[in-house]
Amino acid sequence: MSRLLRVADGPYAPPVPARELTVTAADGARVHVEVHGPENAPAVVLAHGWCCSTAFWAAQIRALAADHRVIAYDQRGHGRSPANPAYGTEPLADDLEAVLDATLAPGERAVIAGHSMGGMTLMAAATRPAVREHAAAVLLTSTGSARLVASATVVPMRAGRVRTWLTRRILGSRAPLGPVTPLARRILKYGTMGPGSAPHMVDACARIVHSCPSRVRHGWSQVLDLLDLDHGVRELRMPAEIVVGTADRLTPPEHARALAAALPDCVGLTELPGVGHMTPVEAPDLVTGKIRALAAAYIPSARGERAVPVEESA
């Protein structure tokens, strides 16, 4: 099976980047990065979730690159970033910090959007110098900070030890996903998307998820199972907005509400009726609009103002 299964046309076909680069994280992991849009435009950084890749953000990249510099990267082991034996929240933070240092000028501010594991990456990296220096605002979509397996509703039964055990076995499976068949699409839609998701949305997500190697999928599932980033949420001191779907089975709205209560500067929580876990694909215009609005509100260059260096604004 091809490592990268992507749709060839339509809104979810990944656009061709203006440039590509490989950055090296603190532990030597190599991370694939794509840059889209004008070099001197306000910056947006996109961090995808578990089993996904930069292709997941195709709709946002396509819309934002007209007037923003959009930086998207593949989490280690995903997309075109090689697998690495280090799994954990610190490696996620290492990768984000390396991307920010390599693509943003000293003192340059950006909106950083994280979906699912990408949002968890932001929580893990909240105290890192690069995040403190570069994050003007963040968007957290379909994510949570802890207790993910116990709260997931992929298994349709009452919460408790049995459901948690079954969920852990399903999400942590080592079995290869195989080709993208009609049955595979139905299974993926049930577990990760809202019931009203259009077929082309489901197909795009299925191709992306099925491209993730089974060993990588399993390795990161173990990290998500033991996740505890409540402390990181409290360290995200920049303006933060949250988006979640009411039909999200992987990170149900209870996580978004807990984040909103814990964040030092939560500027909004949007719950989308009937939308599942794949919010950037299922509600592309809304997610793009949230990113654009955060950039306009919190990046001086997006408003035509002089950017104030970090040391001056401290």
Automatic annotation (TrEMBL):
Residues 44-287 form the AB hydrolase-1 domain. Keywords: Hydrolase. It comes from the Bacteria. Gene3D superfamilies: alpha/beta hydrolase. InterPro entries: AB_hydrolase, AB_hydrolase_1, AB_hydrolase_fold. One of its GO terms (molecular function) is hydrolase activity. Pfam families: Abhydrolase_6. This is Alpha/beta hydrolase. It comes from Streptomyces anthocyanicus.
